[in-house]
Write a structure and sequence with these properties.
By secondary structure, the protein is mostly helical. It folds into two domains: 175 residues, Up-down Bundle (Growth Hormone, Chain: A); 198 residues, Up-down Bundle (Growth Hormone, Chain: A), CATH 1.20.1250. Helix content is 85%, strand content 0%. Helix 12 packs antiparallel against helix 15.
Length: 389
């Protein structure tokens, strides 16, 4: 594997950790700035929404910018924004700095995946994308816990300093490894990109990502109340989240391998089936709750890993499919796919919360299972349309 691939993996890890790390330092940050935890939590919402809105625009307008230059500039601004965040004492200034950092992430993250897809050998596209996508799972499994430890050892401000240092390290790695990055991509007229994005197979594939992410993240977001009600005699959150993290790592890598070996189409089908099986299995166990049998408790924990495996296996397969089918709109499609991921997370939190308020945690998982089924139906429709052309 080329060295630049691991430089981009590290850059993705830094960008995604900056989004998720707030969850680990929320109480300390809110107390220090004199705001409620609910208000401080909007720092995550603003960051995610900014990426969702800016990524497609950046993909269209920054096409001709040399990729290594784009990454260098955005990571530099990103580092400065995080250093400023570490010293501010005003919440609204911090909010503005989060928007600035998110704009940098929105401009770079889709380009990281698009560059990886175009530079990878045809028979290794899935594996190359899966390596970079490990930055996402790494942010959850490694970045957030490390940021939380730094916050406890120093302060929440230390977490932002660490992210700034990480961004500077990513710049050094990129400048040292992307030595053949001669220029940006050929500029494609916006009209041609929009025509490519508007084709039913591409549009439906993008829709699959939004719907599948809504279902998978709905189950993940409300995992804690689900576990508390299903297994009231045990505290399983830490174990289940850790096992799910391992499932996510495995899913990204397996998804990349399968994409190269059996193709993106079959990999997406397998990933959706795995995700649906994990959600449906958890819901069936819920019907027998509360669980007191150790084998059933272990099965419930493992089903969390099955859900994560299916959800994260989708990422390299969907990206590979878009990179090869979207034609002139490939970069924009990958950017929209990134936006769709963040949109799915937003929908999952809002819809899952409404369901939990009106019913119970079991209903949330049942709804997640149904939503994943809708994603599978959308994908089946997209493949039929593509096959008829």
């Amino acid at each position: 594997m080329p060295r630049w691939l691991f430089a981009l993996l590290f850059a993705a890890l830094i960008f995604y950790t900056d989004d998720y790390v707030i969850a680990g330092i929320l109480p300390e940050l809110a107390a220090d700035l004199g705001v409620s935890e609910a208000q401080a939590g909007q720092l995550v919402t603003v960051f995610s929404l900014t990426i969702a809105l800016s990524a497609p625009v950046a993909a269209v307008t920054l096409t001709r910018v040399r990729r290594s230059t784009l990454f260098t500039v955005t990571l530099t601004i990103f580092a400065c924004a995080n250093l400023a965040a570490a010293v501010t004492s005003h919440f609204w200034i911090l909010m503005a700095l989060r928007v600035l950092a998110a704009l940098c992430a929105g401009a770079s993250t889709p380009a990281v995946f698009a560059w990886t897809a175009t530079q990878a050998p045809p028979d290794k596209i899935g594996r190359y994308i899966s390596i970079v996508a490990m930055g996402v799972t790494g942010a959850i499994a490694l970045g957030v816990p490390l940021g939380t430890l730094i916050a406890h050892a120093v302060s929440w401000r230390g977490s932002f300093v660490a992210l700034a240092i990480g961004a500077l390290m990513a710049i050094v790695m990129i400048r040292a490894t992307m030595v053949t990055d001669g220029r940006g991509e050929e500029e494609v007229p916006v009209s041609r990109q929009l025509r490519a994005l508007g084709s039913p197979p591409v549009a439906l594939t993008l829709g699959v990502n939004v719907v599948a992410m809504s279902g998978s993240m709905m189950a993940f977001t409300y995992l804690a109340p689900f576990l508390s009600d299903a297994v009231p005699d045990h505290e399983l959150r830490a174990v289940t989240f850790a096992v799910s993290g391992l499932g996510g790592f495995a899913g990204v890598w397996i998804g990349g391998l399968l994409t190269d070996r059996i193709g993106a189409l079959r990999t997406i089908v397998a990933a959706l089936a795995t995700l649906a099986a994990g959600c449906a299995g958890a819901w069936l166990l819920w019907l027998t709750a509360p669980l007191h049998s150790l084998p059933l408790v272990i099965m419930l924990v493992l089903l969390g890993a099955v859900q994560a495996l299916g959800a994260f296996a989708l990422s390299p397969a969907l990206t590979a499919r878009l990179s090869t089918t979207a034609g002139d709109g490939a970069d924009a499609a990958i950017a929209l796919n990134t936006s769709g991921t963040y949109l799915g997370v937003t929908i999952a939190g809002a819809a899952g919360g409404a369901i939990l308020t009106g019913w119970d945690a079991g209903a949330v998982v049942a709804a997640a299972t149904l939503i994943v089924g809708v994603a599978a139906a959308l994908f089946a429709t997209s493949t039929r349309i593509a096959g008829s052309r």
